[in-house]
Amino acid sequence: MKIFLDTADVAEIREYAASGLVDGVTTNPSLAAKTGRDYVESLREICSIVPGAVSAEVLAMDYDGMIQQAAIFTKIAKNIAVKVPLTWPGLKACKTLSDQGTMVNVTLCFSPVQAMMAAKAGASFISPFIGRVDDMGEDGIGLIHDIRTLYDNYNFKTEILAASVRHVQHVRESALAGADVATIPASVFKALLNHPLTDKGLAAFEADAKKAGVVIKG
Ligand code: G3P
Q1: Hey, which bits of the chain come out as E strands?
Q2: What is the pTM of this model?
Q3: Which of 3, 5, 6 to mutate to test the pocket of ligand 1 (most atoms within 8 A of CB)?
Q4: Per the structure, how many domains does the chain have?
Q5: 83 among known catalytic residues
Q6: pLDDT, average across residues 66-94
Q7: CB-side exposure of 68: number of CA atoms within 13 Å?
């Protein structure tokens, strides 16, 4: 499964991209607002750090506005994926852009049927918001399972990008449910390596080496 960082914070992206484990980035207007920076400038910087897909979300609600904003985004770099909402204008824009060879990420997906419509409109990525589904008392991971089944039944190539990921368990379960990508906040990315037995084992190695005076000589 690919791992994308769900942030518009350039410093955060730079820090974690150095691991080679960041396959892409997703941003949205709320994440851009948090940075206090010019959105297009941030995107330009992010695209120069991460070679994989970088999602840039339109603010327009109408088709023409979406296409105009997409044209601004696609000039930034080749790895931009234009993010559009799962609305009629959004899917119309998705069709136009994907026909032109632009990657499109359709966002704010909450049902398998919505995901089917986005795939039929040519989306490269569909973003089901699993945390927000859980918040409603429903089953976010179940949504990933259902979309996986639906896409496999009809051989849709759209990648399932699990979004609104809140914790490590969401990452594990998204992977097991067949998501192609999980986009995750930096805090969750960092926590992916945490395990108490790793910490315990490391402390024991360190203590044993110290006690016996084990050294590594070149
Ligand atoms: O990936 C979408 C994300 O940015 C929204 O997350 O936690 O606000 O539902 P959240």
Answers
A1: 2-6, 24-26, 54-57, 80-85, 103-109, 125-128, 159-162, 181-184
A2: 0.95
A3: 6
A4: 1
A5: yes
A6: 98
A7: 7
